[in-house]
Amino acid sequence: METNDLTKEYSNGKVTIVWKNALCIHSANCVKNNPDVFHPKEKPWILPENSTTDKIIETINKCPSGALSYYKNTI
């Protein structure tokens, strides 16, 4: 797998954020809509524990490229 085709997952325990960097168009919608979670200059750049699950889902649904998706974790 090439480094420009990474998929990473980040979870807060209730929801898991899936990020596919090859799809990202850097619109920054994630950062604008949920700056507590998305920190593009840091590693890890996604900190899902800093927000509610509902707010994370709302933010991901605004991603224009589909680089961000999510799934709900089962208990």
Would you kindly provide a written description of the structure presented here, covering whatever features stand out?
The protein is an alpha+beta fold. The protein has a single domain, classed as Alpha-Beta Plaits (2-Layer Sandwich), CATH 3.30.70. Helices cover 17% and strands 21% of the residues. The chain contains two helices and three strands; from the N terminus they run ββααβ. It has helices at 29-33, 53-60; strands spanning 7-11, 15-20, 68-72. Strands 1-2-3 form a three-stranded antiparallel β-sheet, with helices on one face. A hairpin with a 3-residue loop joins strand 1 (7-11) and strand 2 (15-20). The chain is globular.
Give the gist of this structure.
With 75 residues, this protein is an alpha+beta fold. The chain has helices spanning 29-33, 53-60, and strands at 7-11, 15-20, 68-72.
Please describe the topology of this protein.
Blueprint: E1 7-11, E2 15-20, H1 29-33, H2 53-60, E3 68-72
Antiparallel strand pairs: 1-2, 2-3
CATH architecture: 2-Layer Sandwich
Domain count: the total is: 1
| Class per helix and strand makeup | alpha+beta
Task: Measure the end-to-end span.
Answer: 31 Å
Task: Give the overall shape.
Answer: globular
Low-confidence stretches: none
Rg over CA atoms: 12 Å
> Would you count the extended β strands for me?
3
Can you identify the CATH class?
Answer: Alpha Beta
Strand content: 15-25%
The ordered string of helix (H) and strand (E) elements is: EEHHE
Helical fraction equals: 10-25%
Give the rounded overall mean pLDDT.
Answer: 94
